[in-house]
Specification:
194 residues; alpha/beta; Rossmann fold
C-alpha cells in the first residue's frame, strides 16, 4: 500500500475477485476502473459486476480501437482521456473568449447574471446553443468524402439549410477509401420532417 493512503485502503490490481472482496465491493455503490490498460479496466468491471450487479460502473478507455468493447460492456460512464482532451481543445478553439468570460463573471453578482440572461434570451428565441460532432466516413457520407478529397467543401456548406438546397450532389467514394473526417459545428440543431 502506498504511503499516505487513507485508512481502509486495499492494495491490489482488482482484476481478480480477492482485492474487490477485501474492499467490500458487495456493499459499494460504484466502482471506477482507471488503469492505463483497457483489458485490466474491463476485467475489473466484469468481476465487480459479478460480485455486485447494482454497481454504478465507470471505466477509463485508453485506446480508441477498444471503443466497441467498452460500448458492449454497458457501463454507466466511459472516461475517454483523448476525447476529454480533444473536447477541451475544441472548447478553446470554438469559444476562445469563454475562459475570460467565466473568469470575469465570477466577480459579478447573481443579479448581474439574471440581467445578462434576460438580455440573451430574446436573441436565442428560447433555444439553447448546441455543439455537435459528426463522423464523416466514405460509407456514411460519400458525397462529403468526395468533396473533401477534391478540396471543394467549405465550412459554409456545413451550415447550409438542406431544405433550401436547389440541387443535390451525389458522388461515390473511391473504392478502398478508409479516410474519416470529424466535423464539429456550433449553432442551432433542428430535426426536420421529410
Amino acid at each position: 500500500m502506498k504511503a499516505g493512503a487513507p485508512a481502509g485502503t486495499v492494495a491490489g490490481r482488482g482484476i481478480g475477485s480477492a482485492a474487490l472482496e477485501a474492499a467490500h465491493i458487495e456493499q459499494a455503490a460504484g466502482i471506477v476502473a482507471g488503469t492505463d490498460m483497457d483489458a485490466d479496466n474491463l476485467s475489473i468491471i466484469i468481476t465487480a459486476r459479478e460480485l455486485n450487479p447494482n454497481l454504478f460502473l465507470v471505466a477509463r478507455q485508453n485506446a480508441r480501437e477498444n471503443e466497441a468493447l467498452f460500448r458492449a460492456a454497458k457501463l454507466d460512464t466511459v472516461v475517454d482521456s483523448a476525447a476529454i482532451m480533444a473536447n477541451g481543445i475544441l472548447a478553446l478553439i470554438s469559444t476562445p473568449l469563454l475562459k475570460d468570460f467565466l473568469r470575469l463573471a465570477r466577480g459579478h453578482s447573481s443579479d448581474w447574471a439574471t440581467r445578462l440572461l434576460e438580455r440573451l434570451s430574446p436573441l436565442l428565441n428560447g433555444e439553447t446553443p448546441q455543439l455537435w460532432t459528426a463522423r464523416l466516413t466514405p460509407q456514411e457520407a460519400p458525397a462529403v468524402g468526395e468533396a473533401l478529397s477534391r478540396g471543394e467543401l467549405k465550412i459554409g456548406h456545413l451550415f447550409a439549410d438542406p431544405a433550401s438546397a436547389t440541387e443535390v450532389a451525389v458522388a461515390a467514394a473511391p473504392s478502398g477509401a478508409r479516410r474519416c473526417r470529424t466535423v464539429t459545428a456550433a449553432g442551432r440543431h433542428r430535426a426536420r420532417a421529410r
